[in-house]
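Support reply, case 0932

Customer input (verbatim):
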Amino acid sequence: MIARRIPRRLLALILGLAALLVLAAVLLFRPGPRIRTEAAVPRPKAPPAPLPRPHAEWIRPGSTLADILSRHGFSPSEIARLREDVKPVHDLARLQAGRTLRFYPGPDLRMIGFEYDIDELRFLRVLSEDGRYKAEVRSRPYVVRKAFVWGTIEDNLISAVEKSGETLPLALGLAEIFGWDIDFYTDLRSGDPFFILYEKRYIDGRFSGYGNILAARFTNRGKDFCAVRYVYPDTKAADYFDPAGGSLRKEFLRSPFKFTPRVSSRFSSSRLHPIRRVLRPHYGVDYAAPIGTPVQATADGTVLFAGVNGAAGRMVKIRHAGAYVTMYLHLKSVAAGIRAGARVGSGQVIGAVGSSGESTGPHLDYRVQYHDRYINPLSWRFSPATPLRTEFRDDFSGTASRYGFLFRVPFLFGLRFFLFSLF
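Our regenerated output:
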């Protein structure tokens, strides 16, 4: 059977009709656009209006918030309301001289808000909203860089740190870490070396302060003291330990001063009293220091007495854990809030050196009792504080190993840290 050939025109007509049918089916059965209800369509939030260019004003010594705001058209009642609205966030009763206030004027040139620099890293922003004032503390973005410094004691720690190119706060930080084992006046020897790995903060490329000391080593009288800062992963609490995981903190600081003044009289069972001229026990250590030198509590505790006590003059007496009691005699003044029943922390300033009571000159008579018996604070061996938690010992070992060269070969560690800091 011979197949018939379909004419070309007929074939083109058939193919054209088929294409039209396919196109019609697509158009007919294509799903239409989804219809959203008004509630389902998200409306973009209008961005907050940018604040206008601020007017900066330097806070002069003796200026108060009322003085400053009154110059900007605020009435006494408005100032009182602003202060109360802001008080839960920050107390504006005392402004620190030398800091800056930035005022934001509204369209009618009346102030709609201001900012106050609390410190280098934080500022307070206050804005007017519906007749009230909303306040929040904001942080400035900053960059943290690691740094490494070393030096040798010639006279004292402060001058040694300054000669290395750094400043007082870093020296105080180092003294606080090793203050449990080293008396930074009586124990220091010329030639004692130190090495510090620490953080420096920068805002807009400008140095703004020190961060944490990450690791440090101090050699005193031929003995090495090493410290590693460790942050617990769960609580984020931080403390310093030696490379083996032993706590650097003891129950008591070595001295009631950050930098210990000269010891003018030591603990003795028989000493000639400088005023009464008779032999009697001296159950304390006398530190000669200028009047007004801050005195710190040597451990956490509760104040038993704060006031004038006869020949002891103005004094503070503190009870501590483990049956210890400390006494601070001949003070010029007692710090604010230090009264019977108050809790104090280790290193907290409790008063200032004076010459009250039976005293021949400005000094502090520091005494310690253990189970109601006087002990010599310079020779007594205080036990360590809370040790490193066992479950984090392996994690701590990893942290300590990063600083291992600092504790063994300082020069190689410095080279290693320099190369590490480049990346």
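We compared this against your earlier run and they match. Two observations from our side: The first strand starts at residue 55 and ends at 58. The mean pLDDT is 81. Please reopen the case if you see a mismatch on your end.
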